[in-house]
Amino acid sequence: MPIMNTTDDAQLALSTAQSGASVVRGLYGAPLDRVEKSAGDFATEADLAAERTMLDLLRTARPEDAVTGEESGATGTAGAQRRWLVDPLCGTLNYAVQNMLVGVNVALRETGSGITAAATADPFNDEVFWTDGTRARLRRGETDTPLLPSPDSRLVDLNLDPPFPAFPPARLLTAPGFAERFRPRVVSTSLAVAWVAAGRRAAYVTDGGDLRESVHFAAGIALCEAAGCTVTGIDGLPLASSAGGLVAAADAETHAALMKLIRLA
After folding, report:
1. Could you tell me the pTM of the whole model?
2. Which three-class secondary structure state does DSSP give residue 193?
3. Rounded average pLDDT per 10-residue block, the chain, 265 residues
């Protein structure tokens, strides 16, 4: 297999996220059929169409790479060294009721190196948060600017979606001292993880299993790590050794404060 240029991979991630965002934006507000997936979970025609567009682009550009799509599942060699993780519409329920808080995620996982390229697009703000694994940038139009995490907003996004196998983030709301320092937000899309890297959120907290290869979270985690955020599991351990979940904080002080509250809750 030819050696890929990491810059090319990052630009492919960016353009793939943009292509999915274009489909999502174009179908917004139209009557959309739903495909039921499980109790309370469904996909729309926009999810399916955006994923087809994104996968076509990836397969054309990187025919030897494997791909895992939120809607179509895994394709390619099971033990592939390079696998693209695609979430064509994160925040489907928001989108279905014409709420514009949604994201389009794509990430490249390479064996032995982790996530080496990733992008999260906001279809309605002409923004793409992207990384080549070392730098984190925001693309607006044709301009790139560095992502700069900041705790100043004091806003903490909580993922309140079930199931909660270990620590329900809702418990954090009643932890002594949480309201004195932070203000909760619930966006219901992993776009909020990218906002931590961009300084628009002080932190993001979710329970769950190993999220490093999740089509929903891999891109946001990579963005936060490249931007210099403090990122661990819900237990405060590095993601590689954590029992699961995610605490992505703008800085070490914010992370430490949240971990103290989580342990009290």
Report:
1. 0.93
2. helix
3. 64 98 96 82 94 97 96 89 97 93 97 96 97 97 96 96 79 91 93 98 93 95 98 96 95 98 87
